[in-house]
Amino acid sequence: xxxxxxxxxxxxxxxxxxxxxxxxxxxxxxxxxxxxxxxxxxxxxxxxxxxxxxxxxxxxxxxxxxxxxxxxxxxxxxxxxxxxxxxxxxxxxxxxxxxxxxxxxxxxxxxxxxxxxxxxxxxxxxxxxxxxxxxxxxxxxxxxxxxxxxxxxxxxxxxxxxxxxxxxxxxxxxxxxxxxxxxxxxxxxxxxxxxxxxxxxxxxxxxxxxxxxxxxxxxxxxxxxxxxxxxxxxxxxxxxxxxxxxxxxxxxxxxxxxxxxxxxxxxxxxxxxxxxxxxxxxxxxxxxxxxxxxxxxxxxxxxxxxxxxxxxxxxxxxxxxxxxxxxxxxxxxxxxxxxxxxxxxxxxxxxxxxxxxxxxxxx
Length: 363
Hints:
Blueprint (H helix, E strand, L loop, with lengths): L2 H15 L5 E2 L2 E2 L16 E2 L2 E7 L4 E3 L5 E3 L1 E6 L9 E6 L8 E7 L2 E4 L7 E3 L8 E2 L2 E3 L8 E9 L2 E11 L1 E6 L10 H10 L3 E2 L2 H9 L8 E2 L4 E6 L14 E7 L8 E7 L3 E6 L7 H10 L3 E2 L2 H10 L8 E2 L5 E5 L12 E4 L9 E7 L1
Parallel strand pairs: 5-15, 18-21, 24-27
Antiparallel strand pairs: 1-2, 3-4, 4-7, 6-13, 7-12, 8-9, 8-14, 9-10, 11-13, 14-15, 16-21, 17-21, 18-19, 19-20, 22-27, 23-27, 24-25, 25-26
Protein name: Hyaluronan and proteoglycan link protein 3
Family: Belongs to the HAPLN family.
Pfam families: V-set, Xlink
């Protein structure tokens, strides 16, 4: 007589134990825990086979106008043969950590790209490998494509993802408008950089520029809405002499009310920057016309910095740029050409004067 109650109790305990596992579509999901009970390295099992997604651990480098592939693959462990069509979703993480930007979704051979990625993004064709292909191909890379991307693979109720970091090879330069220092709110700073063939730099780009030698005591907007500035040589007006070298930060500022300079980011060019001059020099309007007569346009600040950085443009003659500033790039410092360090020299925004001009022409 005691056997029946014991069997009933065992059955109830067995059924109750099922409620510790999420139950969906007739399949149990089971979490693998490590020895100390933490949910590190947690994986989901689906019908006896787990989905594994793996993306590039190293940053992927590219430049403006190029084509780039962000590697991402998936497989099942153990492999149980052909699967139903899975869904691949790519999204871009925003600099300010708000909602991710949709890049594209693919199901089978059908690809749908969104926003600025329309016509530029698709999934790479699969090769002969045990891994299934989920890599994203982006053509005609643009400055704002720089950043982190999420590769997400969805098979029914299973969902695994990994992150790929796309970094554009470029240069960060500080910018202030003709009307002087600390005149730009965040939105004006964005526009100012765009007007100069660039975008607002992000923190990683500013940090890279600092590590390569950028030292600038004026605070500027970054793409995430923070205000920061890079210091290599600590000094009293730049945070004090007792602080270590590094990136000084004012943190997030009000995007409409607060005003600073901007840190802009430009990448390699698809065209060329060249210099024109006349014996008597040119006014700004004459300079613009001279570039047009040469089948080009007057160069912007970001284009001059990129030509200096990536094409080795070195000219000890000052020239007009599109914003009305007068500058010249020096790769090899020498007498009568400014300071002892390489860089782009500036004469500011002269209201009068006659100079040469830097022009830009697409190849």
